[in-house]
C-alpha cells in the first residue's frame, strides 16, 4: 500500500486553472451543465416561492420596506467586494496560481473595506430615511460582505471548470439553511430581523461549501503576477455595475424617500416577485453561457450560432411565463402574498411589461464579457443608466405605480433598441440578429396575451387557484400553437426536440 502511494503521480498544481480538456466535448458539457443548473434553479425556485409565501404572511410590508431601504444602499457598496474579478477569472484564457492567489487577497481586502464603509454610513442611511432602526439593520447586514469576499475566486474556479454539480449542491444547501433560519426567526416574532439574518446564514454556509468543494487553497499574494489586465477588465465591469445598480435601484431610493416604507415595501415585493422566475431561468443559463462563449470566442461562426441558440431557448422559457404572470397578477398576488399585498398586483403587471424582454437584455452581458469588451459595457452603463433614471423621475409624482409604468415604457421603446444597436456594432452577433431571434416570440406573446385577456374578461372564475391553473394551461397551449404557425418557431421547437433526443443515453 505504501509503495503504491509512493509511486502515485503528484497532484497537478494547475488542475484548477486549465480549460483545454473542456474543449474536447464542450457542447455536451454545456448541455449537461444546463440541465444540472436548470434542475438546481427549479429546486431554488420552490424554496424561494415557499419562503416568499410563508414569510409574506408572517411579516408586514413595512418589514420588507425597512430592509429594502438598507439593501438599496448596501447593495451598491457591495459591488466593490468582487470588483469584477470573478468574471475575469472565468473569461481569461490562461491563468495561474499566483494570479488567482493575488486576486483572492484583493477580494478579501475589498470585502473588509466594504464592510467598514457600510458601518460608517449606517447613521447616514438612518438620517436620510428618518428611521433610527436602520442603523442596526445596516451594521448587521455589513457582516455578510466578509463571506462574499472569501468565496469569489473559489466560485469562479468552479464555474471556469464547468463543475456545475458542485455549485448546485452549494446553492441548494446554503439556500435551505438561509430559508430555515428566516422562517424560524419569523415564527418567533423576530420581524424584519428574519430578513436581515437570512442572507448572513446563506453566505456563511456558501463560503464553507465552496472551500470544501473547490479544493484550491490560496497562497500569498505575488507582485508582478500579471493581474493588471484582469484588474482593468474587472474595473470596467465594476464601473458598469455601479452605474447599472444606481440606475436599477434609484427607483427604490426615490420611492422610499418620498412615499415611505409602505409604498416601497409594495414596490420592492412586486419587483422581487417579477424577478423570481426570470432569475431562476436566466441565472443557470448564464452560468453555462459565459464559460461556453468564452471558449468559442476564436470561432466567430460557432460563437454566433451558440449564442442565438441559447437566447432562443431562453425566450421560449421566459416569455410565456411572463405573459401569464401579467395577465393573472391579481390572482398571483392574492395566492402568494395574501390580501394585505393587494396593491402590489398593479405594480407587478406594469413592471412585467419590461420583464418580457429583460432576459434578452441580460444576455447581452455575456457578449460584452466573453468578447473582452468590458470597456464597451461600461460605456453602455452610462447610456442605459441615464435613460432609466429619467424614467424613474418622470413617474415619481404618481407613486410606485407611476414609476413602474414609466420605466416599462421607456425600457421597451428606448433602452432596448439602443442596447441592440450598441452591442451589435462589433463582434460576431450583429444588431439584426437580436430582432430576428426576438420577432417570432414577440408575435407569439402578443397573441397569447390577447387570448388570456379575453379569458379574464368573458369567463368568471371566483377561485384564484383554479383561475391560475386554467390560465396557465391556456398560456402553454396558445403559445405553442401560435409558435408552430411560423417557420422560425417550428425550427426552434425542432431544435429542442433534437437536443432532448441527443441527450438520452
UniProtKB/TrEMBL annotation:
What are the record keywords, sorted?
Cell membrane, Membrane, Transmembrane, Transmembrane helix
Tell me if Metal-binding is a UniProt keyword of this record.
Answer: no
Q: How does it sit in the membrane?
A: Multi-pass membrane protein
Q: Does the keyword Transmembrane apply?
A: yes
Name of a matching Pfam family: Polysacc_synt_3
Residues spanning the membrane: 64-83, 104-128, 134-152, 164-186, 192-214, 226-247, 270-293, 314-335, 347-368, 380-398, 404-423, 435-455, 461-483
Where does it primarily localize? Answer: membrane
Which cell locations does it reside in?
Cell membrane
What family does the Swiss-Prot or TrEMBL record give for this protein? Answer: Belongs to the polysaccharide synthase family.
What is this protein identified as?
Lipopolysaccharide biosynthesis protein
Organism of derivation:
Funiculus sociatus GB2-A5
